[in-house]
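step: validate -> pass
step: tokenize input -> pass
step: predict -> running
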Amino acid sequence: MEEKNESQIIPKHVALIMDGNRRWARERNLPTIEGHARGYAKLKTVPSWFFHKGVNIVSVYAFSTENWNRNRDEVNYLMKLLGNALRDDLSEICKKEARLIVSGRLHELPGDLPELCADAMEKTRNNTKGILNVCLNYGGRAEIADAFKGMLANKIEADQAHEGIIRKYLYQSDIPDPDMIVRTSGEKRLSGFLLWQSAYSELLFMEKYWPDFEKNDVDFVLVEYERRKRRFGGD
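step: predict -> pass
step: emit ->
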């Protein structure tokens, strides 16, 4: 197993916007679903590459609240792919000793997906070789809205509503903010990903599509992170 360079500054939390699956398929005259299948195959390997380098948490944007507007057949395929992943690949995640967290409006997912998500989180909750945070039916604005709904339901008073309280009502309040957010495909926007948490995240936009992400791209991300000087509003 590869180990991190002890002198290298390693981010604790890397977040990935896995973009470009459909364009990858179209440029190869393949069905859209083939792009998603290749993208999922890459997702099964990439987090481990980061964990082996010393990154503790990898968050991925798997399905947004806006993705329901896509073609029905494509959405149905993605839901089936997610279900199969949670049923068939959970043992592989457990073997890697990674903890799986699923973030988003899980109660809105179809069929038995909410139960599968809950089961996967329970079975991996004691794993310690890294945290994979899968953002599913997730939107940054939806997360903030849900946080405020939770605060109102618990009768939080206006003078109690500070940043620390709001954080407690986010989907995963115990996970530190991402140090770096990486988006593939050449698009240069966050598209609602971790809006609250990304205030001081370093951003990196890569031209290649997600299915083309390779092991040496992890090194590129980490080297680029080390080059950045994070000021957090200071000098």
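step: describe -> The first strand starts at residue 13 and ends at 17.
step: cleanup -> pass
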